[in-house]
Amino acid sequence: MKKKIISLLLAGLFVLSNITVTYATEGEIADMQAQKQQAEAGLAQAQADISAMEGKKQELEDYLSDLNAQYEELTNVISDLSVQAGEKENQLKDIQKKLKKAQKASDKQYEDMKLRIQYMYENGGTTALQTLLSSKDLAEFLNTAESVSKISQYDRNMLEKYENLQETIKEQKTAAQEEKTAIDSLLAERSAKQQEVQELAASTSDNISSYIAQISASQEEAAALTAQINSADNSIAQLIQQAEAEKAAQERAEAEAAAAEEASGEEDTTEEDAAEDTVGYEEDTTEENYTEENYTEENHTEENDESQDSGEDTSDAEESSESTEDSSDASEDQSSSESTNSGQGKYLGNFTLTAYCNCAQCCGTAGNLTASGTVPAAGRTVAMAGVPFGTQLLINGNVYTVEDLGTPYGHVDIFFDNHSDALSFGLQSAEVYQLN
């Protein structure tokens, strides 16, 4: 009986230690999964920040492109205005020269006319009377008077002509000066606008550089979080394998404890039966000694032999019963194994299926290798934690290889060549079998 109690205590302690280790492993897995979820949340936030900053950076780049176009346009306008201002300057110089020339011709004409008038009329009517008297006849007098009249009319016409010319030149000068002033004003305005655009372009370039630096920092943070998630997946996979190994060890320990308990119970039963036989025998012999007193050592020996033979028969029967029970347990284990392992491989369960590709939206950065270091390929590569890299999974009649991480055990992420196919796949579920 003491041996049975000790065996049960030892088995209980061993099972309890395995349960404690299993609970500790499950707690570590929960902590690691919590850390992974926190890292995934941080990664999602970092990717959202990167996307937002990329959008703002693109807006600034578009704005900078517009500013550069405006600056180029203003440069061309300023160049044209500079040419026009130069032309107006030359035009004003030419007008000034013409004005001076016209003024000089007008002054000369005025001086000549004064001389003629002075010559013709300095003596008043005497000169006219002398001209009349000196004429041979009336015709000569009329001709002479007509000539004087024509000269006077010519002088008036020429004077009027030069006055009109001067007035025209002055008007041209005024118009040219006004145009030159307008051109200079527009040139100054465009130059100021050009300076403003140049300053805006410089400020926008600085903002773009700042966003580039922020995006780079966020990408580094996302890469660190991705590495942390991959590390957590590896740790979770190792802990799951450890938990499965501990669970198997626990089951073996429970089976051994049950076998030990059963064996101890059978041994105690045998000992108790033997003790009862001995007590009964002693009582019988005592009664006989009291009544007959003819008890011999030979009879005592025969009865002991019969008791031993009876014990041996009981032990053989119990051994046969144990053999039958072991055979039944083995048959049940074999049946259970056959239900779990079919012709399609080891059945893992009904798993969640999603899809991803190698773009920046799915992976943070584009063109990455898998966590196992391979180049991902559609129709082959899947991601799932909890199993070693290289594990082959049978899903919907297709054979995939676990080459990447990113999803927990029970969630298979299937690789596609492009983002549109991954989106079209959506969220599904399927029976999953392990082939190796």
Automatic annotation (TrEMBL):
Task: Extract the CDD domains matched here.
Answer: 3D_containing_proteins
- List, as start-end ranges, the regions of compositional bias called Low complexity: 333-344
Limits of the Peptidoglycan hydrolase PcsB coiled-coil domain: 100-171
Outline the segment boundaries, as ranges, of region: Disordered: 247-344
Provenance organism: Blautia wexlerae
User: Residue spans with biased composition (Acidic residues)?
Assistant: 263-296, 303-332
Per the record, the coiled-coil ranges are 29-112
Lineage of the native species? Answer: Bacteria, Bacillati, Bacillota, Clostridia, Lachnospirales
Recorded protein name is Peptidoglycan hydrolase PcsB coiled-coil domain-containing protein
Q: Pfam families, from UniProt?
A: CC_PcsB
Q: Where is the signal peptide?
A: 1-24
Keyword annotations of the record: Coiled coil, Signal
